[in-house]
């Protein structure tokens, strides 16, 4: 009897873990992998468009003037700037949700688990920045040191997913955690080093709106409408403040509750009461009461999903398949010619960005990981070697979305911006090819089942 109960509980527990943790992670990884393909398609559309007879229509489209007047504030921008300052807020909001999820319950949730990916992310940011600075120190382009620091999660996870079983699952988790920590560092860099001037009046309004959001959050308001309205006001205030408006998305994500509205005890008690009400209504043949009880059960079940999880699941497909590809089309367009490529090859901007991503990323990630493990501060992921960490570092050199974003913040000179874009595109392609080839050449990782069989065989031989 007890054994049967234990088996039932064990099965239930495993199903709960799979439903609650494994499947959401798989859905997220699948979105990022397929999103990388759509992102690549967006970049190819931009390149083909700019290098076609219809090049002028590309520039005319993204330079279209837009105006938004809501009486409380008025915003006038080009369509391209509206994509970068408006649509990308949702992208950074989802990034912020990912960061908070990792900090609360993921690989960054405890110091012991966070040390290796966080240190690797720091090394993967410092290495590229130092290489870029070495090429551009003392010049007008030195301000672009933040461009090669970023890793594109969509492309990086997509490449590892395409490699399949040649890459151990713990290495994929490590790279995902590293990329999330890398995103956090990139957000700090944008907020601190790419803010030119501040409007304290606008910052005051932003702080006031933020206070209202905190108050209604503490008051238990769960309806999405008030948060959307206040979120738009907060974004507008941040846009006027001088701090890049996309930071508003990250701040709002950090305020999103990561716990369900109901505790397990409240859920069990309420569910039992509603089931009883449904059973009584069914016995009486009262269809309306039955539907009312079912609706309450549905609301109760949705309340057991935290707002963070709900928003991430709903918004991640939109950012992966709509917003980021639009951003790629708006920002990846570079008119390629023989003269332009010759100039780019000798340009310190292109060389700094490209070598920063292709060399600085893997070297920085590998060295900091090696130091952390050798000092006993962290352990390598299970079934993973330092050679595979180096391969993950090479894949992390795919810096696309955030790299293009920071490039747009770094340079007003179109020539310098194009040079940076060429470096980003060339380095991302090269990093993906080299990283994939390197990981494919490594011995296939042993599965956990193979390891278990080897341990059993060794045990049997000693017996």
UniProtKB/TrEMBL annotation:
Record localization: Cell inner membrane; Cell membrane
Molecular functions (GO terms): sodium:proton antiporter activity
Main location: membrane
InterPro entries xrefs: Na/H_antiporter_dom_sf, NhaA
Role according to the record: Na(+)/H(+) antiporter that extrudes sodium in exchange for external protons.
NCBIfam families: NhaA (TIGR00773)
Entry protein name: Na(+)/H(+) antiporter NhaA
Organism annotation: Tepidiforma thermophila (strain KCTC 52669 / CGMCC 1.13589 / G233)
Gene: nhaA
